[in-house]
Amino acid sequence: MNRYTSAESTGERDFIPFARPSIGEEEEQAVLEVLRSGWLTTAGRAKEFESDFAAYTGAPHALAVNSATGGLHLALEALGISSGDRVITTPYTFTATAEVVRYLGAHPLFVDIDPHNMTIDPRQVEKALKDSAGYRPSPTSRGVKAIIPVHLGGYPCEMEELKGIAAKHDLKVVEDAAHAFPVRTDAGYLGCLSDVGVFSFYATKTITTGEGGMVVTEDPDIAARIRIMRLHGIDREVWNRYTSNRAAWRYDVVAPGFKYNMPDMAAALGIVQLRKAEDFLRQRRRIASRYLEAFEGVDFLKVPANSPSHGWHLFILRLDLEKLSIGRDQYIQELRNRGIGTSVHYIPLHLMSYYQRSYNLKPDDFPEALRAYKEALSLPIYPGLRETELHRVIDAVLEVGKKYCRGGQGG
To answer: Which own/partner contact pairs does 223-226 have at CB distance under 8 Å and 24+ positions apart?
Structure first.
């Protein structure tokens, strides 16, 4: 019998949210210092955060932005992606990964996921490149120019294979590393293994600035382009304009840029959170190991793929629906009735009306993504999740499954 099936009841019945940010007095003090400084937008704290992040990851260039979405947009623009180009990515991701392709008038070319780890399948990438000669989503469509792999939940994509494919076909690679900080592999940190990497510091991410992101690259030309384009295409950064001896009002607009800069209040949070990143990762991995131990071998559950380099931003548990008399949605509701918050990662993009309509996509076009979606639910996994809460989550998952397991008790 699994040792978690009879954990002692604590009597605690407060709702356990799916996600909870880990913010302490150090973060509060850092933000308060910015508020009292009189300078609230992008300035010295943003520069400091960039410098600290570059030193942490070893990336030659780190550029703070107001969101990972903005970072992905800037990355593709800096790589020259433009109208009619195609960019390969997975439908099993948040919409930001694909929508930024559309910002530039380019077209996402979706490929299915590896059923083992739910990240983009290099074999499907190869197939898409082979088949793409006849794929023309619009009369102005051109060739495939880039790949955006997504390190889903912090699990590393097969980067060596993907980079080999990219080199063979002269493609750029932009890592969507929104879930992947601070995951180190033998080759280096995820997000730092390609032409450009983009991290997210959204409220639920492994470290947070509330809203925000970071773009990293080794290429000084890409970095220079992003630095200009993230703030209106102006040739001088705002902090420099107000601290330089050169007239503050004099600047040039060298390109029609965007408004993607990170303010100092967000950066102040990031500086403190960065110092805690390794501890946060240890806590996530500890919780993941407890879940894996509890759910391994339970016949109505499918545990996620594990890896020494897994960042465990998400713990995506899959249900063996053939063993259950209820579907995923009712399972989630049963957990909620027991005070457990969950989420679903993700509703595949090829099920979304915009992408269906724009590219004539059908649910069965990507069967592995569709199957994963129907089976998947994400459990709470964040620093500060108390032992009593962890036991409650495990007990609830097992209790619901046993209640609805076909043919009697599962386990």
So the answer is: 223/60, 223/61, 223/63, 225/74, 225/77, 225/78, 226/63, 226/74, 226/75, 226/78
Just list the catalytic residues.
205
Total domains, the chain: 2
Distance CA 408, CA 403 (A): 8
CA distance 318 to 115: 11
Q: What pLDDT is stored for residue 132 in this prediction?
A: 75
pLDDT number for residue 240: 55
Give the pLDDT confidence of 213-232 residue by residue, as tens digits. Answer: 999 999 999 999 999 999 99
Same domain membership, residue 309 and residue 255: no
pLDDT of residue 236: 76
Which residues of the chain register pLDDT less than 50?
1-12, 134-135, 139-140, 241-242
What pTM was computed for the model? 0.92
Output the pLDDT for position 39: 86
Nearby residues of 250 by Cβ (< 8 Å), 6 or more positions away: none
Last residue of a domain, one of 249, 275, 301: 275
* pLDDT value at residue 142: 72
Of the three residues 243, 275, 307, the one that is the final residue of a domain is 275
DSSP string, 186-252: TTEETTSSSSEEEEE-BTTSSS--BS-EEEEES-HHHHHHHHHHTBTTBSS-HHHHHHSSS-TT---
Q: Degrees (nearest 5) of the Cα angle 70, 75, 81?
A: 115
Q: pLDDT value at position 247?
A: 55
CA atoms of 346 and 344, how far apart (whole Å): 5
Domain housing 344 = 278-403
Q: Report how far residue 1's alpha carbon sits from residue 90's, in angstroms, rounded to the nearest whole number.
A: 39
Q: Shortest CA distance to 373 belongs to which of 113, 92, 88?
A: 92
Query: How many CB atoms are closer than 10 A to CB 115?
Result: 14
